[in-house]
Amino acid sequence: MIRNLIVIILVVCLLVTACQKCGSPSTYQHDGIENFSTADSSMSLCRKLIPEGFIDEFDYIEADYHYRLTEKSMGYKSCETIIMYFEYSDEVYEKAKSYVWENMLLSNKVVASYKNYHFWDNYTNGTGGHDFPYRFSRVAYNDERKTLVFIAFDVSVELFSEAALAEEDYGAFLEKYYGEWYSFDE
Predict the structure, then answer these.
(1) What DSSP letter does each residue of 148-184 carry, written as one string?
(2) Considering the entire predicted model, what is its pTM?
(3) Taking residues 7-36, what's their average pLDDT?
(4) What is the helix, strand, coil percentage profile of the chain, to 5?
(5) Does the pLDDT of residue 96 top 70, yes or no?
(6) How far is Cα 182 from Cα 83, in angstroms, rounded to an integer?
(7) H runs (alpha helix) in the chain
(8) What percent of the chain has pLDDT over 70?
(9) Main-chain phi, psi angles of 71, to 5 degrees
(10) Burial class of residue 117 (count of CB atoms within 10 Å of its CB; 0-12, 13-18, 19+)
(11) How large is the greatest C-alpha to C-alpha distance in the chain, in angstroms?
C-alpha cells in the first residue's frame, strides 16, 4: 500500500514537472541578413517576404533581418515576428523600390503610415491584410531615409488580445514588436 502511494506520488511529481516545462516559453530566433531563410517561418511568412533574389539584386548601404518565434506552450500561444530592412543610396533606392512593386502583389493603397513610413499589405505570400491584425505581412518605404522595410506578424488565437494593439495604435505596435531591432524615427 505504501509502495503504491509512493509510486503515485512520484508519477504525479513527474507530470507536474513536465507540465511546468511545457508551459515555459521557448524562443527560436535568427538575426542578421546572412541568416535569412525562406524556411524560417512556421507559417510560411518568410517564403514571400521579399522578391526572390532581392538581397543580391541591389547594393545596399545597410540591411538587417530578425526573426523570432516565441511559443509559450508547445505550439500554443505563439507569436511570430519578422522584420527585414534595406537602406540604399539615392541611385539604387528607386530601382529597388520599383522592383518590389513590380515583383510583389501589394495592396492598391497605403494601409498605415508611421513617422514617414508608408505601409502596404503584402499579398504575395497569401497573408496580406486578410487576417489583420492577427496574421499579416507588409512592405513599407521611407523616401527620406531611402529605406525599404518588410515585416510579418502571426499570433495564435490564444494571444489575439496582444495583436489588437496593431488596430488601436499601429505606431505603438511597431515599437513594441519591432523597436528592439529597428528605429522608425526620422
Answers:
(1) EEEEEEEE-GGGHHHHTHHHH-HHHHHHHHHTTT---
(2) 0.81
(3) 62
(4) 35, 30, 35
(5) yes
(6) 8
(7) 2-23, 54-57, 90-103, 160-163, 165-168, 170-178
(8) 79
(9) -115, 125
(10) buried
(11) 83
